[in-house]
């Protein structure tokens, strides 16, 4: 099972919107509505931001949204803030009854 | 407070074994699938495996790269999940996290993470 493909880095200015893509296959991202996204600040524990493609856990800002089209899922951060600077990982359930993470994206707030 | 705490990490020689523990509190441990991850130095997250709840057989699944070397088990009476790691290699050096699959709480994602425990494999 190969890692899902994410851009290595994405940047934006405060207040802007950015989108991180996560490309898999019809055996993972495209097969189930089970893509989740995690935010990880340096030296910290990952935090669930989006689950089941587009749902937000309680307490997560509505500036974070998830979507999916075919084999590609996306995480959009609107109204970018300095505190959003972190690494972001997507994750999908697969037809092998396993999970696979994406390669990770470093978000920089300019 | 819902939390997970890992323990058992440390320095181990190549070829040796190590068992990590993940103790849960603040929730009904047996209602949740539990999973293990790792993150090598400067690297991304890697999913290692999970164990189903007893209702669904309590059986584990693993990523291909550790199948046969790593074993996940659970003791619901003690609210502990284990990761038994055998024949350790230098490339197994990482921070190991356990996590809860939050399906029983209506959140089908890894909603609770432990702080992690560091495993260093070196001679």
Structural class of chain B: mainly beta
Intertermini distance of chain B: 39 Å
Q: What is the percentage of strand-forming residues of chain A?
A: 35-45%
- Rg of chain A computed from alpha carbons, rounded to a whole number of angstroms: 13 Å
State the shape of chain A: globular
Order of helices and strands of chain A: EEEEEEEEE
Number of strands of chain B: 11
Helical region count of chain B?
A: 0
What is the number of helical segments of chain A per DSSP (H or I, 4+ residues)?
Answer: 0
Report low-confidence residues of chain A grouped into runs of 5 or more: none
Biggest sheet character of chain B: 7 strands, mixed
Quaternary organisation: heterodimer
Labels describing this entry:
heterodimer; A: 110 residues; mainly beta; 3-stranded antiparallel beta sheet; 44% strand; B: 123 residues; 7-stranded mixed beta sheet; 4-stranded antiparallel beta sheet; 11 strands
Task: Sum this structure up briefly.
The complex is a heterodimer of chains A (110) and B (123). With 110 residues, chain A is an all-beta fold.
Can you characterise this structure?
Chain A is an all-beta fold and 110 residues long. In chain A, 0% of the residues lie in helices and 44% in strands. Chain A is built from no helices and nine strands. In chain A, strands 1, 3, 4, 7, 8 and 9 form a six-stranded mixed beta sheet that branches. Chain A has a three-stranded antiparallel beta sheet with strand order 2-6-5, with no helix packed on it. The mean pLDDT of chain A is 97. Chain B is built from no helices and eleven strands. In chain B, a hairpin with an 8-residue loop joins strand 5 (45-51) and strand 6. In chain B, strands 2, 4, 5, 6, 9, 10 and 11 form a seven-stranded mixed beta sheet that branches. Chain B has a four-stranded antiparallel beta sheet with strand order 1-3-8-7, with no helix packed on it. By secondary structure, chain B is mainly β. Chain B starts with a strand and ends with a strand. Chain B has strands at residues 3-7, 10-12, 18-25, 33-39, 45-51, 60-62, 70-75, 80-85, 94-101, 110-113, 117-121. Chain A binds chain B through residues 1, 3, 34, 36, 38, 40, 45-48, 50-52, 55, 57, 87, 89, 91, 97-104, and chain B through 35, 44-47, 49-50, 61-64, 97, 102, 107-111, 113-116.
């Amino acid at each position: 099972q190969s890692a899902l493909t994410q851009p290595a880095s994405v940047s934006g200015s405060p207040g802007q919107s950015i989108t991180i893509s996560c490309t898999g296959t019809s055996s993972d991202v495209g097969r189930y509505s089970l893509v989740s996204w995690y935010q990880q600040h340096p030296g910290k524990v990952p935090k669930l931001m989006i689950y089941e493609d587009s749902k937000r856990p309680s307490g997560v800002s509505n500036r974070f949204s998830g979507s999916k089209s075919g084999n590609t899922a996306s995480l959009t951060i609107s109204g970018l803030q300095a505190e959003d600077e972190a690494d972001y990982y997507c994750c999908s359930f697969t037809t092998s009854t396993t999970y696979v993470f994406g390669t990770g994206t470093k978000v920089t707030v300019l | 407070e819902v939390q997970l705490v890992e323990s058992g990490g440390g320095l181990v020689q190549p070829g040796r074994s190590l068992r990590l523990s993940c103790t849960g509190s603040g929730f009904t441990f047996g209602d949740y699938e539990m999973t293990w991850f790792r993150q090598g130095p400067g690297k991304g997250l890697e999913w290692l495996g999970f164990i189903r709840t007893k209702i669904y057989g309590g059986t584990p699944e693993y990523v291909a790269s550790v199948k046969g070397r790593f074993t996940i088990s659970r003791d619901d009476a003690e609210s502990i999940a284990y990761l038994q790691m055998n024949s350790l290699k230098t490339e197994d050096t990482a921070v190991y996290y356990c996590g809860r699959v939050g399906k029983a709480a209506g959140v089908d994602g890894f909603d609770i993470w432990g702080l992690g425990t560091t495993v260093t494999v070196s001679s």
